[in-house]
Amino acid sequence: MEKMLAAVFHKGDTQGGDIKLEEVELPRIIKSDHVLLEIKACGICGTDLKIMEGGHPANDNTILGHEFAGIVREVGESVQDLEIGDKVVADPNEKCGYCTNCRRSLSSLCEYMASGTTFGIFQNGGFAKFCVVPRSTLFKLPENIDLTAAALIEPLSCAVHCHNLANVKESDNVVIIGAGPMGLIIQSVIRIHPIKRLICIEIDEWRGQKALELGADFLINPESQDVKNEIMRITNDAGVDVIIDAVGISQTFEIATKIWAAGARLICFGQDSRAEAKIKPNDIVRYQRRIIGSYIGYAEDFIDAIELIANKKIYVDKLITKVIPLEDLLKTGFKLMKTRKCVKIITTP
Ligand SMILES: [Zn+2]
Ligand SMILES: [Zn+2]
Fold it and tell me: Of 71, 74, 7, whose CA–CA distance to 34 is shortest?
């Protein structure tokens, strides 16, 4: 039996677990709507680290990697519209299409998906040479697209979703709290469109510099600066119209509610289930502010993300810190992720 190298998650006794590089059997097409992909690139996500540390659930004995692109190598008998050799990207979150949320155009909240079905977390994913996924999860890519860059499409689709919910206008002062990989990818999307100014709030020096490199006009470090004073100085006392909280802890929510202008939109993007916050409802009513949650993305956001990558609208080179072979996933990839001195790391099998 032919084997392939894969990064497999093994649950620990209490919480989290280990990721091991192992030789596993090649996946096979079982259902008629299945597609066998040869993976060409798979991004490392902060979620992969969280899974190891016990901060995110995952199934035991599962191949991780949920940000992947590749080439169609075999299709099930009911797949009519994909050819062998087509370039594709996967939406790892398969949507059922018929639950109430799907039918109410809230497919990122699909009830089937919420039961734990994500490829690369609950089912075998992209840290391997091959992967089998249903046709419905795949988006066909333009022939000339770079498949390493295409590994950014999944996180980019979440950023597009966030940007759409923020409804950013040309006259808006925009703040992004947190310049981790997702904060920086969101910043890249915001920067494509005209706005008044973009301000990044970040503690880590390396990440703050990266934000400036990617087009932030101002950088505020809340550890050494008074955020509210700085914001009022920069915006001539106007405050901020759009705040994207890409961190999602109690402190960042609190910062957001100190700097928001009348009519502001606060987009809660970063997630921490332990975070709690206090808010005065009258601060919302009296100033017509909105607090909006942004959770992954819709199929239409994938289509837009593909367009942004294909048309080179995103600084892919600045967002991909390193491309490494899959066998270096643990010793180079995760190690670099833990230093926080990186944006995206892409593995190639
Ligand atoms: Zn991810
Ligand atoms: Zn659904």
Answer: 74
